[in-house]
Design a protein that fits this description.
InterPro entries: AB_hydrolase_fold, Acyl-CoA_thioEstase_long-chain, BAAT_C, Thio_Ohase/aa_AcTrfase, Thio_Ohase/BAAT_N. The chain has helices at about 80-85, 175-180, 205-220, 235-245, 330-345, 390-410; strands at about 5-10, 10-15, 20-25, 30-40, 45-55, 60, 85, 105-110, 120-130, 135-140, 145-150, 160-165, 185-190, 205, 220-230, 250-255, 265-270, 270-275, 285, 290, 320-325, 350-355, 375, 380-385. By secondary structure, it is of the alpha/beta class. The longest helix is centred in the last third of the chain and has 24 residues, at about 390-410.
Protein backbone atom coordinates (compact mmCIF):
# COMPACT_ATOMS: atom_id res chain seq x y z
CA UNK A 1 0.00 0.00 0.00
CA UNK A 2 1.09 3.55 -0.70
CA UNK A 3 0.84 5.87 2.33
CA UNK A 4 -1.75 8.63 1.99
CA UNK A 5 -3.08 11.45 4.14
CA UNK A 6 -6.79 11.54 4.96
CA UNK A 7 -8.22 14.86 6.13
CA UNK A 8 -11.75 15.62 7.29
CA UNK A 9 -13.09 17.97 6.01
CA UNK A 10 -11.07 16.93 2.95
CA UNK A 11 -10.11 20.10 1.08
CA UNK A 12 -11.21 23.10 3.09
CA UNK A 13 -12.29 24.00 6.64
CA UNK A 14 -12.94 27.16 8.60
CA UNK A 15 -9.94 28.28 10.65
CA UNK A 16 -11.72 27.97 14.01
CA UNK A 17 -13.04 24.47 13.24
CA UNK A 18 -11.21 21.24 14.10
CA UNK A 19 -9.47 19.30 11.34
CA UNK A 20 -9.23 15.49 11.61
CA UNK A 21 -5.86 14.14 10.40
CA UNK A 22 -5.07 10.49 9.64
CA UNK A 23 -2.48 8.57 7.59
CA UNK A 24 -3.23 5.21 6.01
CA UNK A 25 -1.12 2.66 4.13
CA UNK A 26 1.86 2.67 6.49
CA UNK A 27 3.64 -0.50 7.65
CA UNK A 28 2.65 -2.06 11.00
CA UNK A 29 4.04 0.14 13.81
CA UNK A 30 5.99 2.18 11.26
CA UNK A 31 7.69 5.27 12.72
CA UNK A 32 6.99 8.55 10.92
CA UNK A 33 7.31 12.28 11.44
CA UNK A 34 4.37 14.52 10.50
CA UNK A 35 5.20 18.09 9.56
CA UNK A 36 2.86 21.01 8.89
CA UNK A 37 3.87 24.25 7.15
CA UNK A 38 2.00 27.47 6.49
CA UNK A 39 3.09 30.83 5.08
CA UNK A 40 1.43 34.09 6.06
CA UNK A 41 0.81 36.85 3.52
CA UNK A 42 4.25 38.36 4.09
CA UNK A 43 5.89 35.01 3.24
CA UNK A 44 6.85 34.16 6.84
CA UNK A 45 7.07 30.40 7.36
CA UNK A 46 5.40 28.71 10.37
CA UNK A 47 6.07 25.02 11.03
CA UNK A 48 5.29 22.24 13.50
CA UNK A 49 6.31 18.58 13.57
CA UNK A 50 5.48 15.53 15.66
CA UNK A 51 6.74 11.94 15.88
CA UNK A 52 4.25 9.09 15.59
CA UNK A 53 4.09 5.34 15.35
CA UNK A 54 1.39 3.68 13.23
CA UNK A 55 -0.86 0.99 14.68
CA UNK A 56 -0.57 -2.74 13.88
CA UNK A 57 -2.86 -2.16 10.88
CA UNK A 58 -0.61 0.59 9.42
CA UNK A 59 -3.20 3.26 10.32
CA UNK A 60 -2.31 6.46 12.11
CA UNK A 61 -5.28 8.45 13.43
CA UNK A 62 -4.35 11.54 15.44
CA UNK A 63 -7.55 11.31 17.49
CA UNK A 64 -6.32 7.95 18.85
CA UNK A 65 -2.51 7.99 18.51
CA UNK A 66 -0.41 10.05 20.91
CA UNK A 67 2.59 11.97 19.60
CA UNK A 68 5.89 10.62 20.94
CA UNK A 69 8.45 12.88 22.64
CA UNK A 70 10.89 14.79 20.44
CA UNK A 71 8.65 16.96 18.27
CA UNK A 72 6.80 20.27 18.76
CA UNK A 73 4.45 18.54 21.25
CA UNK A 74 3.73 15.09 22.66
CA UNK A 75 0.66 13.20 23.88
CA UNK A 76 -2.81 12.87 22.40
CA UNK A 77 -3.23 16.18 20.54
CA UNK A 78 -5.41 15.80 17.43
CA UNK A 79 -4.93 19.53 16.59
CA UNK A 80 -1.33 19.82 17.81
CA UNK A 81 0.05 20.16 14.28
CA UNK A 82 -1.94 23.40 13.96
CA UNK A 83 -1.71 25.03 17.39
CA UNK A 84 2.01 24.21 17.71
CA UNK A 85 2.97 26.06 14.48
CA UNK A 86 5.94 28.30 15.25
CA UNK A 87 7.60 31.06 13.20
CA UNK A 88 10.94 30.12 11.68
CA UNK A 89 12.12 33.67 12.42
CA UNK A 90 11.74 34.81 16.04
CA UNK A 91 9.18 37.39 17.18
CA UNK A 92 6.70 36.80 14.36
CA UNK A 93 3.01 36.41 15.21
CA UNK A 94 0.57 34.60 12.93
CA UNK A 95 -2.20 36.97 11.88
CA UNK A 96 -4.53 36.92 8.87
CA UNK A 97 -4.37 40.10 6.85
CA UNK A 98 -6.77 39.25 4.04
CA UNK A 99 -9.77 37.21 5.20
CA UNK A 100 -10.93 36.73 1.60
CA UNK A 101 -8.15 34.21 0.93
CA UNK A 102 -7.49 31.06 2.99
CA UNK A 103 -4.25 30.00 4.62
CA UNK A 104 -2.74 27.08 2.70
CA UNK A 105 -1.65 24.32 5.07
CA UNK A 106 0.90 21.78 3.82
CA UNK A 107 1.10 18.42 5.59
CA UNK A 108 3.99 16.01 4.99
CA UNK A 109 4.55 12.45 6.19
CA UNK A 110 8.28 11.73 6.52
CA UNK A 111 10.09 8.48 7.23
CA UNK A 112 11.45 7.78 10.72
CA UNK A 113 12.20 9.94 13.75
CA UNK A 114 15.59 11.27 12.66
CA UNK A 115 16.65 14.89 12.85
CA UNK A 116 16.21 15.83 10.09
CA UNK A 117 13.60 13.14 9.30
CA UNK A 118 13.88 10.82 6.29
CA UNK A 119 12.31 10.78 2.84
CA UNK A 120 8.84 12.07 1.99
CA UNK A 121 6.18 9.32 2.06
CA UNK A 122 3.00 11.36 1.47
CA UNK A 123 1.75 14.92 1.41
CA UNK A 124 -1.52 16.83 1.38
CA UNK A 125 -2.69 20.42 1.05
CA UNK A 126 -5.60 21.93 2.91
CA UNK A 127 -7.25 25.36 2.91
CA UNK A 128 -7.98 26.99 6.27
CA UNK A 129 -10.61 29.58 5.36
CA UNK A 130 -11.93 32.59 7.24
CA UNK A 131 -15.03 33.55 5.27
CA UNK A 132 -17.93 31.11 5.33
CA UNK A 133 -19.90 30.91 2.06
CA UNK A 134 -22.57 33.60 2.03
CA UNK A 135 -20.97 35.89 4.63
CA UNK A 136 -20.91 39.45 3.26
CA UNK A 137 -17.82 41.63 3.74
CA UNK A 138 -18.67 45.33 3.45
CA UNK A 139 -15.98 48.06 3.71
CA UNK A 140 -17.41 50.98 5.72
CA UNK A 141 -16.32 54.59 5.08
CA UNK A 142 -19.19 56.59 6.62
CA UNK A 143 -18.41 59.95 8.21
CA UNK A 144 -15.15 59.38 10.07
CA UNK A 145 -15.62 55.62 10.50
CA UNK A 146 -12.98 53.33 8.98
CA UNK A 147 -14.23 49.78 9.41
CA UNK A 148 -15.38 46.55 7.80
CA UNK A 149 -18.83 45.10 8.44
CA UNK A 150 -19.39 41.34 8.24
CA UNK A 151 -22.96 40.09 7.85
CA UNK A 152 -23.94 36.41 8.18
CA UNK A 153 -25.76 34.56 5.39
CA UNK A 154 -29.55 34.63 5.41
CA UNK A 155 -32.09 37.17 6.54
CA UNK A 156 -31.33 39.46 9.46
CA UNK A 157 -31.54 41.29 11.64
CA UNK A 158 -28.59 39.75 13.50
CA UNK A 159 -27.18 40.54 16.96
CA UNK A 160 -24.54 43.25 16.43
CA UNK A 161 -21.00 43.52 17.83
CA UNK A 162 -18.18 46.06 17.42
CA UNK A 163 -14.76 44.37 17.50
CA UNK A 164 -11.57 46.19 18.57
CA UNK A 165 -7.93 45.06 18.58
CA UNK A 166 -5.05 46.67 20.48
CA UNK A 167 -1.96 48.82 20.06
CA UNK A 168 -1.01 47.15 16.77
CA UNK A 169 -3.42 49.56 15.04
CA UNK A 170 -4.65 48.99 11.50
CA UNK A 171 -7.82 47.05 10.75
CA UNK A 172 -7.61 43.36 11.74
CA UNK A 173 -10.69 41.61 10.36
CA UNK A 174 -10.15 37.93 11.11
CA UNK A 175 -11.87 37.69 14.50
CA UNK A 176 -14.87 39.75 13.32
CA UNK A 177 -15.14 37.57 10.23
CA UNK A 178 -15.02 34.30 12.21
CA UNK A 179 -17.71 35.64 14.57
CA UNK A 180 -19.92 36.57 11.60
CA UNK A 181 -19.63 32.96 10.41
CA UNK A 182 -21.41 32.10 13.66
CA UNK A 183 -24.41 34.37 13.15
CA UNK A 184 -23.37 37.82 14.39
CA UNK A 185 -23.25 41.13 12.49
CA UNK A 186 -19.74 42.31 13.37
CA UNK A 187 -18.05 45.65 12.71
CA UNK A 188 -14.24 45.41 12.79
CA UNK A 189 -13.33 49.00 13.71
CA UNK A 190 -9.96 50.70 13.10
CA UNK A 191 -9.07 53.49 15.52
CA UNK A 192 -5.52 54.49 14.61
CA UNK A 193 -2.70 53.66 12.21
CA UNK A 194 -5.07 53.13 9.27
CA UNK A 195 -5.84 55.24 6.18
CA UNK A 196 -6.59 58.82 7.32
CA UNK A 197 -6.93 57.98 11.04
CA UNK A 198 -4.26 59.30 13.47
CA UNK A 199 -0.86 57.70 12.89
CA UNK A 200 0.02 57.48 16.59
CA UNK A 201 -1.66 56.78 19.92
CA UNK A 202 -1.69 60.31 21.36
CA UNK A 203 -5.34 60.83 22.24
CA UNK A 204 -8.62 59.17 21.44
CA UNK A 205 -12.01 60.87 21.13
CA UNK A 206 -15.01 58.76 22.11
CA UNK A 207 -17.11 60.69 19.58
CA UNK A 208 -15.41 58.59 16.88
CA UNK A 209 -16.47 55.35 18.60
CA UNK A 210 -19.95 56.82 19.19
CA UNK A 211 -20.32 57.22 15.42
CA UNK A 212 -19.59 53.52 15.04
CA UNK A 213 -22.12 52.58 17.75
CA UNK A 214 -24.80 54.72 16.06
CA UNK A 215 -23.94 53.23 12.66
CA UNK A 216 -24.63 49.75 14.08
CA UNK A 217 -27.78 50.77 15.99
CA UNK A 218 -29.26 52.32 12.83
CA UNK A 219 -28.30 49.45 10.50
CA UNK A 220 -31.32 47.51 9.22
CA UNK A 221 -29.42 44.19 9.46
CA UNK A 222 -28.55 44.74 13.15
CA UNK A 223 -31.01 43.54 15.79
CA UNK A 224 -31.64 46.08 18.56
CA UNK A 225 -32.19 47.48 21.00
CA UNK A 226 -28.49 47.39 21.93
CA UNK A 227 -25.20 46.05 20.59
CA UNK A 228 -22.21 44.19 22.01
CA UNK A 229 -18.56 45.22 22.27
CA UNK A 230 -15.54 42.90 22.06
CA UNK A 231 -12.02 44.13 22.72
CA UNK A 232 -8.59 42.65 23.38
CA UNK A 233 -5.73 44.45 25.17
CA UNK A 234 -5.96 48.24 24.48
CA UNK A 235 -9.22 47.48 22.63
CA UNK A 236 -10.54 46.22 25.98
CA UNK A 237 -10.19 49.48 27.88
CA UNK A 238 -11.61 51.36 24.87
CA UNK A 239 -14.66 49.06 25.04
CA UNK A 240 -15.04 49.76 28.78
CA UNK A 241 -14.86 53.50 28.07
CA UNK A 242 -17.49 53.16 25.32
CA UNK A 243 -19.77 51.16 27.63
CA UNK A 244 -19.30 53.73 30.42
CA UNK A 245 -20.14 56.85 28.41
CA UNK A 246 -22.13 55.83 25.32
CA UNK A 247 -25.76 54.70 24.99
CA UNK A 248 -27.01 51.58 23.22
CA UNK A 249 -24.50 49.03 24.57
CA UNK A 250 -25.96 45.87 26.11
CA UNK A 251 -22.98 43.51 26.54
CA UNK A 252 -19.21 44.08 26.70
CA UNK A 253 -16.63 41.27 26.52
CA UNK A 254 -12.96 41.95 27.23
CA UNK A 255 -10.02 39.69 26.48
CA UNK A 256 -7.11 40.61 28.78
CA UNK A 257 -8.34 44.18 28.96
CA UNK A 258 -7.60 46.95 31.46
CA UNK A 259 -10.09 48.86 33.63
CA UNK A 260 -7.77 51.88 33.56
CA UNK A 261 -7.22 54.03 30.49
CA UNK A 262 -3.82 53.10 29.03
CA UNK A 263 -1.41 54.60 26.52
CA UNK A 264 -3.23 57.77 25.41
CA UNK A 265 -5.52 60.50 26.73
CA UNK A 266 -9.21 59.70 26.31
CA UNK A 267 -11.61 62.57 25.62
CA UNK A 268 -15.38 62.77 25.42
CA UNK A 269 -17.19 66.12 25.28
CA UNK A 270 -15.74 67.98 28.29
CA UNK A 271 -14.43 64.83 30.03
CA UNK A 272 -10.75 63.88 29.89
CA UNK A 273 -9.23 60.68 31.32
CA UNK A 274 -5.42 60.64 31.55
CA UNK A 275 -3.47 57.47 30.72
CA UNK A 276 -2.21 55.32 33.57
CA UNK A 277 1.35 56.23 34.55
CA UNK A 278 4.24 54.02 33.43
CA UNK A 279 7.78 53.51 34.66
CA UNK A 280 10.14 51.99 32.06
CA UNK A 281 12.69 51.27 34.82
CA UNK A 282 10.41 48.40 35.84
CA UNK A 283 11.05 46.51 32.57
CA UNK A 284 12.99 43.31 33.32
CA UNK A 285 14.63 40.77 31.01
CA UNK A 286 13.67 37.08 31.06
CA UNK A 287 16.16 34.20 30.83
CA UNK A 288 16.25 34.56 27.04
CA UNK A 289 16.98 38.29 27.32
CA UNK A 290 13.53 39.39 26.10
CA UNK A 291 11.76 42.32 27.77
CA UNK A 292 9.08 41.55 30.39
CA UNK A 293 6.77 44.56 30.90
CA UNK A 294 4.35 43.09 33.46
CA UNK A 295 5.29 45.66 36.16
CA UNK A 296 5.60 48.77 33.97
CA UNK A 297 2.15 50.24 34.63
CA UNK A 298 1.37 52.11 37.86
CA UNK A 299 -1.41 50.95 40.19
CA UNK A 300 -4.73 52.65 39.23
CA UNK A 301 -5.87 52.47 42.89
CA UNK A 302 -3.10 54.79 44.15
CA UNK A 303 -2.51 58.55 44.10
CA UNK A 304 -3.05 60.57 40.91
CA UNK A 305 -3.28 57.32 38.87
CA UNK A 306 -6.80 56.87 40.26
CA UNK A 307 -7.94 59.41 37.63
CA UNK A 308 -7.13 56.81 34.97
CA UNK A 309 -9.64 54.28 36.34
CA UNK A 310 -12.54 54.21 33.87
CA UNK A 311 -15.91 54.85 35.61
CA UNK A 312 -17.36 51.53 34.46
CA UNK A 313 -20.09 51.81 37.13
CA UNK A 314 -21.81 54.24 34.71
CA UNK A 315 -22.25 51.43 32.18
CA UNK A 316 -25.73 49.98 31.60
CA UNK A 317 -24.47 46.69 30.20
CA UNK A 318 -23.32 43.24 31.27
CA UNK A 319 -19.58 42.50 31.38
CA UNK A 320 -17.51 39.40 30.61
CA UNK A 321 -13.80 39.39 31.48
CA UNK A 322 -11.65 36.74 29.77
CA UNK A 323 -8.37 36.49 31.70
CA UNK A 324 -5.11 34.73 30.84
CA UNK A 325 -3.50 34.16 34.24
CA UNK A 326 -0.03 34.09 32.67
CA UNK A 327 -0.55 37.38 30.78
CA UNK A 328 2.86 39.16 30.85
CA UNK A 329 1.60 42.31 29.12
CA UNK A 330 -0.21 43.60 32.20
CA UNK A 331 -2.11 42.36 35.24
CA UNK A 332 -5.36 41.30 33.55
CA UNK A 333 -6.67 39.32 36.51
CA UNK A 334 -6.08 42.24 38.88
CA UNK A 335 -7.92 44.56 36.48
CA UNK A 336 -10.88 42.17 36.18
CA UNK A 337 -11.16 41.76 39.97
CA UNK A 338 -10.92 45.52 40.60
CA UNK A 339 -13.51 46.19 37.90
CA UNK A 340 -15.82 43.65 39.55
CA UNK A 341 -15.34 45.25 42.99
CA UNK A 342 -16.12 48.70 41.60
CA UNK A 343 -19.27 47.54 39.79
CA UNK A 344 -20.57 45.79 42.90
CA UNK A 345 -19.68 48.74 45.18
CA UNK A 346 -22.03 50.82 43.01
CA UNK A 347 -24.85 48.25 43.17
CA UNK A 348 -24.22 46.91 39.66
CA UNK A 349 -24.40 43.28 38.64
CA UNK A 350 -21.25 41.25 39.20
CA UNK A 351 -19.44 40.64 35.89
CA UNK A 352 -18.59 37.18 34.62
CA UNK A 353 -14.85 36.53 35.00
CA UNK A 354 -13.38 33.47 33.28
CA UNK A 355 -9.75 32.77 34.20
CA UNK A 356 -7.38 30.48 32.31
CA UNK A 357 -4.20 29.28 34.02
CA UNK A 358 -1.34 28.91 31.55
CA UNK A 359 -2.88 31.32 29.03
CA UNK A 360 -0.91 34.39 27.92
CA UNK A 361 -1.92 37.80 26.57
CA UNK A 362 -3.01 37.15 22.99
CA UNK A 363 -6.07 34.94 23.47
CA UNK A 364 -7.15 34.62 19.83
CA UNK A 365 -9.84 32.55 18.08
CA UNK A 366 -9.24 28.76 18.24
CA UNK A 367 -6.16 27.15 16.68
CA UNK A 368 -4.10 30.31 16.25
CA UNK A 369 -0.69 29.26 17.56
CA UNK A 370 0.39 30.96 20.76
CA UNK A 371 2.72 33.90 20.25
CA UNK A 372 5.28 33.75 23.08
CA UNK A 373 7.05 37.02 22.19
CA UNK A 374 6.82 39.66 19.48
CA UNK A 375 7.36 43.35 18.76
CA UNK A 376 5.45 45.79 20.99
CA UNK A 377 4.84 49.02 19.09
CA UNK A 378 4.73 51.25 22.20
CA UNK A 379 7.77 49.66 23.87
CA UNK A 380 9.74 49.61 20.61
CA UNK A 381 11.21 46.14 21.12
CA UNK A 382 10.08 42.53 21.46
CA UNK A 383 8.28 41.63 24.69
CA UNK A 384 7.11 38.34 26.18
CA UNK A 385 3.34 37.78 26.14
CA UNK A 386 3.24 34.78 28.48
CA UNK A 387 1.42 31.48 28.17
CA UNK A 388 2.16 27.78 27.80
CA UNK A 389 1.23 26.55 24.29
CA UNK A 390 -1.12 23.65 25.12
CA UNK A 391 -2.95 25.43 27.97
CA UNK A 392 -3.15 28.59 25.85
CA UNK A 393 -4.67 26.68 22.93
CA UNK A 394 -7.27 25.07 25.20
CA UNK A 395 -8.11 28.50 26.63
CA UNK A 396 -8.69 29.88 23.13
CA UNK A 397 -11.15 27.09 22.30
CA UNK A 398 -13.11 27.59 25.53
CA UNK A 399 -13.01 31.41 25.46
CA UNK A 400 -14.43 31.42 21.92
CA UNK A 401 -17.45 29.45 23.16
CA UNK A 402 -17.81 31.63 26.28
CA UNK A 403 -17.76 34.85 24.22
CA UNK A 404 -20.40 33.61 21.77
CA UNK A 405 -22.63 32.26 24.56
CA UNK A 406 -22.36 35.60 26.42
CA UNK A 407 -23.39 37.61 23.35
CA UNK A 408 -26.20 35.18 22.42
CA UNK A 409 -27.62 35.43 25.93
CA UNK A 410 -27.49 39.21 26.24
CA UNK A 411 -28.08 40.30 22.62
CA UNK A 412 -30.75 37.78 21.55
CA UNK A 413 -32.30 36.69 24.83
CA UNK A 414 -31.66 33.09 23.77
CA UNK A 415 -29.74 30.98 26.23
CA UNK A 416 -26.72 29.20 24.84
CA UNK A 417 -27.13 25.56 23.95
CA UNK A 418 -30.46 25.95 22.16
CA UNK A 419 -30.50 24.04 18.92
CA UNK A 420 -31.70 26.94 16.75
CA UNK A 421 -28.99 28.73 14.80
CA UNK A 422 -29.26 32.47 15.31
Amino acid sequence: AVPSVRLSPAARSLFDEPLAIAVQGLGPQQQVTLRTSLRDETGELFQACARYQAGDDGELDLTRCPALPGGSFSGLEPMGLLWALQPQKPFRRLVKRDVQSPFLLQLEVLEGHGDPPGRLLARAQHERAFLRDGVRRIPVREGRIRATLFLPPGNGPFPGIIDLYGTGGGLPEYRACLLANNGFAVLALAFYGYEDLPKEMKEFHLEYFEEAVNYMLQHTEVKGPGIGLLGISKGGDLCISMASFLKGITATALINGSVANVGAVLRYKDISIPPLGVNAKRITLNKAGIADIIDVLNNPLEGPDRQSFIPLEKAECRFLFIVGQDDRNWKSEFFAVEGSKRLQAHGKEKPEIVCYPGAGHYIEPPFFPMCAASMHLLVGKPVVWGGEPKAHCEAQIDAWQQIQAFFRKHLTGKPSGTSSKL
